[in-house]
Specification:
By secondary structure, this protein is mainly beta. It has one domain (about 20-80). The chain contains no helices and seven strands. The strands form two sheets. Strands 3-4-5-6-7 form a five-stranded mixed β-sheet, with no helix packed on it. A two-stranded antiparallel sheet has the order 1-2. It is globular.
Length: about 80
Amino acid sequence: MKYGYAVMQDGYTYEPGVEVPDLGSVRCIQKNGNKRKYAFLSKDLDKLPTYDNLSSGSAALATDTNKVYVYESTSKTWYQQGE
């Protein structure tokens, strides 16, 4: 979605007219440099960010299923942990 004003989302500032990604229920709950921790609903797994500068080791918890995902930056992929 594009806005006519600057939007801050997930630690990024999107200038007016720039496409802002739809993150659905995905919320950043902790940020340490380019490594982040997210909480989200499992229906929004495909909305987890894959930014160019998102660091490997970033993690995400699907709060409705208790599944944990860890990000690997060279493949830009979120991998489910356990099971």
